[in-house]
Design a protein that fits this description.
Layout: H1 23-37, H2 40-59, H3 71-133, H4 137-153
Length: 169
Amino acid sequence: MAEGGRRLDQPRSKGLAAPRIDADAFGRFSEGIARFLGTGRFLFFQTLLVIAWITLNLFAVKLRWDMYPFILLNLVFSTQAAYAAPLILLAQNRQADRDRVQAEEDRSRAISEQAETEYLARELASLRASIGELATRDFIRSELARLAGDERDGPDDGRRRGGSRQPRG
């Protein structure tokens, strides 16, 4: 910074400084105008204005302020269009910015959800593999029945409880 707090990378202002405009407030204003210009109410009132303008200028001899080719009316519409077009473009740009931010948030959310889904799919596959290695109730019953059957049919080691040994066959 140079002396006096002036920045050296910005040109010096000559004359009156431009008024500072709150860009967000102006953007909201332009969106409101654009929203109004796109309504049937606006078209209705504008049509009434044009009909009244032309009627008064054709038939009210004492009130004529804009003669037949209606140059002043043309000028009014040109001025309206000159201001409306940039305001509508500004509103569209703001909407495009909001859409872009929303798309980025949706994309990041989708990536996060995809990663979470893939994690859950891996966990589910791991659980399925683990369950495949677990003994089921039917398997345990059949093993217990087999072991109980082996004990009954097992070798005679002096601990048998009654009954005679029957040959396996």
